[in-house]
């Protein structure tokens, strides 16, 4: 019997051709891949060039951002943190708006402590710089109580979270800048010290002997709360757990008398004894003295307040608070008189502070208070203040 032949008809030849075609395609694909890997990339088509450029820019931006986050900041990028203590709204927001517009390099940040629940929006402020700049854990502040210290510490704790912040300026809601942003920034940043109004308080009635020995009387200081702190001193204030408890325990305000409201009656010679320690006038000064840091301070404030008004017949200008400047007070003569001050004398220490900036004679004050909204706007519109 003959062996049976296998017949390769048309169907068999087609299958063989298909296999051969697949093999050819595979070899061609491998060759092209090798060729592409060893050759420079082809130029994108005209329609895709913009998209490719956009991708490259995003990649470059990510690289630059990573480098900035890892590398130390150049000195010019250090920020001044402005810490506003306000009741509710900021009545002088337009004045500050003009001031902050003078910076084009992002050299400032803003934090506002207002009453709990208050939010800065288009409905509550006229300046975009203040939108949502309120802290979210504010406390109710009462004058002459330790709650003012708490507000300061809250503001500092928020500002210290930003590593770019190098100086911390406490600002009243009735305060105006006297110079433009660049001058103010250079003045503050050129000093390696904090500006803290601080002097020995040897009068009775403020220091509570029960604070001793935790706060000895030789470390007791008085001054304005409107300080400018370097980062080291800001951290000392935020992390203090020794001096603050003593203030809360022993530094309580007595009921304030109402005698000064009757302007036709003389103010008693020892009226200052009518109330006890005012924490915001003593805490930062005493804490830094207690910490052995007074050598690192310029012991004066850069914020001007007018206190010597005992002869005023305006009953609103008498008492425990500095004068409030009204529209009629906002004159070129007033601004010039403040700018012309170049030294401050501290009677209790027989010390005179000659004011300097960058080791050269300079005006003492960068800011002034207390101005009403109308007075501030008059200064701004009349260009009495340089912003």
UniProtKB/TrEMBL annotation:
<dbReference type="InterPro" id="IPR003406">
    <property type="entry name" value="Glyco_trans_14"/>
</dbReference>
<keyword id="KW-0328">Glycosyltransferase</keyword>
<protein>
    <recommendedName>
        <fullName>Core-2/I-branching beta-1,6-N-acetylglucosaminyltransferase family protein</fullName>
    </recommendedName>
</protein>
<keyword id="KW-0325">Glycoprotein</keyword>
<keyword id="KW-0472">Membrane</keyword>
<dbReference type="GO" id="GO:0016757">
    <property type="term" value="F:glycosyltransferase activity"/>
</dbReference>
<dbReference type="Pfam" id="PF02485">
    <property type="entry name" value="Branch"/>
</dbReference>
<dbReference type="GO" id="GO:0016020">
    <property type="term" value="C:membrane"/>
</dbReference>
<dbReference type="InterPro" id="IPR044174">
    <property type="entry name" value="BC10-like"/>
</dbReference>
<keyword id="KW-0808">Transferase</keyword>
């Amino acid at each position: 019997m003959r062996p049976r032949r296998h017949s390769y008809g048309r169907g068999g030849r087609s299958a063989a051709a298909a296999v051969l075609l697949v093999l050819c395609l595979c070899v061609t694909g491998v060759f092209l891949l090798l060729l592409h890997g060893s050759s420079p990339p082809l130029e994108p088509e005209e329609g895709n060039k913009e998209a490719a450029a956009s991708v490259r820019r995003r990649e470059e931006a990510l690289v630059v951002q990573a480098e900035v986050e890892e590398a130390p900041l150049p000195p010019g990028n250090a920020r001044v943190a402005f810490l506003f203590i306000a009741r509710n709204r900021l009545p002088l927001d337009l004045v500050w708006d003009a001031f902050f517009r003078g910076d084009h390099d992002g050299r400032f940040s803003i934090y506002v402590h207002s009453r709990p629940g208050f939010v800065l929006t288009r409905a509550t402020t006229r300046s975009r710089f203040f939108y949502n700049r309120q802290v979210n854990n504010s406390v109710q502040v009462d004058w002459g109580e330790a709650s003012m210290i708490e507000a300061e510490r809250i503001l500092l704790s928020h500002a210290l979270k930003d590593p770019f912040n190098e100086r911390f300026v406490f600002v009243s809601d009735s305060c105006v800048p006297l110079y433009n942003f660049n001058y103010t920034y250079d003045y503050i940043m050129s000093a390696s010290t904090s500006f803290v109004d601080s002097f020995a308080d040897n009068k009775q009635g403020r220091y509570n002997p029960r604070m001793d020995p935790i706060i000895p009387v030789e470390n007791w200081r008085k001054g304005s709360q409107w300080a400018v702190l370097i980062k080291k001193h800001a951290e000392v204030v935020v992390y203090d757990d020794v001096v603050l408890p003593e203030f809360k325990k022993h530094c309580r305000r007595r009921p304030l008398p109402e005698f000064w409201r009757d302007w036709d009656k003389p103010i008693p010679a020892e009226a200052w004894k009518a109330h006890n320690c005012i924490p915001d006038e003593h805490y930062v000064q005493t804490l830094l003295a207690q910490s052995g840091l007074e050598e690192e301070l310029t012991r004066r404030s850069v914020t001007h307040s007018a206190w010597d008004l005992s002869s005023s017949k305006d009953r609103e200008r008498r008492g425990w608070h500095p004068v409030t400047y009204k529209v009629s007070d906002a004159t070129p003569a007033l601004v010039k008189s403040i700018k012309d001050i170049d030294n401050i004398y501290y009677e209790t220490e027989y010390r005179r502070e000659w004011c300097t900036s960058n080791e050269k004679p300079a005006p003492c004050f960068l800011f002034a208070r207390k101005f009403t909204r109308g007075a501030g706007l008059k200064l701004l519109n009349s260009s009495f203040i340089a912003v």
